[in-house]
Amino acid sequence: MPYIPLPDHLPGITGLLEYSQVTAHPIRILTQTLLRGESTLTAAERELIATIVSHNNECKFCTAAHTAAADVLLGEHETCEIMKQDIDAAPVSEKMKALLKIAKQVQVSGKAVTADAIALAKERGATDIEIHDTVLIAALFCLYNRYVDGMATVAPSDPAFYTGLGQRLKEHGYNRLPNGYDHLKTQVQPS
Amino acid sequence: MAHITLPDESLPGIVGLFNFRPETTGALQLIAETLLRGESSLTSGERELIAAHVSYLNNCHFCHTSHASAAMAHLECDLSLIDDIKQGFNQIEISPKLRALLNIAGKVQKSGKEVKESDIEAAREQGATDREIHDAVLIAATFCMFNRYVDGLGTWAPQENEAYREMGQRMAFTGYVRYAEADL
Prior knowledge:
The complex is a heterodimer of chains A (191) and B (184). Chain A is mostly helical. Chain A has one domain: AhpD-like (Up-down Bundle). Chain A is built from nine helices and no strands. The longest helix of chain A is centred in the C-terminal third of the chain and has 23 residues, at 128-150. Chain A is globular, with a radius of gyration of 16 Å. By secondary structure, chain B is mostly helical. Chain B has one domain (13-177): AhpD-like, CATH 1.20.1290. Chain B is 61% helix and 0% strand. Chain B has helices at 13-18, 22-37, 44-57, 61-75, 82-86, 96-110, 117-125, 130-152, 165-173. The radius of gyration of chain B is 16 Å and the shape is globular. At the A-B interface, α2, α6 and α8 of A face α2, α6 and α8 of B.
């Protein structure tokens, strides 16, 4: 049960972003820019950064949601699951492995990011903008994960919920849907 | 030196990052403006204290000292009281409600999962509303982002409290948005 009254049909972050639309507005803009804006990292690669940070913060809702988004963008389920166990074993580029390791350090603390981790990413061809965006995406998910769990929001147990959400994130990104979310009222059963 | 090459290395903390990646700057500034200076039943001084407290717990000197300085500006306190935030608010006068919200913010700094029903109940007993609890959690979570951004990219920060005096005044009274909302 969330600590404050949130709409039943909008679990996890989705209810919070509707509860407080004024504060949600710039957070949505930042997320859309970082995860879907122009970048030399693919949308799937950026979803992997969101996933590894949410996984390490043990945020069930965000991990499942961004795993689903990455899966639908990649067209397979293996990469996320392997990455969560062992970044080096994941079928991603060497540069991406180095960036995911930086993201993992950011999850612990900004101060935990080592010069060695940065140097490795640069050696493997990461640009300053890619390193910047990796750090900021990882930091942003430290915000989301704390917001979602700090308010004790509900994480649905039905995997089909996240498949639908992943599809929505692929098609619409992170901007608020123009017509809101009332059409979801019949689709989600409280878990 | 920062981990990435910034256009102006003389600019400290997040300020140096703002002109590196203008695509994300406007939204970041609007987040700070909305949370710390937007409409709320918590005063801006109270909200800046939450931001400074979380930044201190994250060991982020730039964010801690700059937001503490902004809080002092709002509260009309002497800059020497900045260090009282580190010592757990013995001299700065804060309400029991704010103390309960600062406790929640401290839990959020560790992990969202650390916030327990009893922490929420304690805040409600001191008169905190749903909205105030929400805002305290979101401000704390947001500074877990800002702190990681500032330190994760290895930016530099002036040491002395005095170096943050003008910055705090500007944050408190001019605000955080230097890009028009229309650009977003």
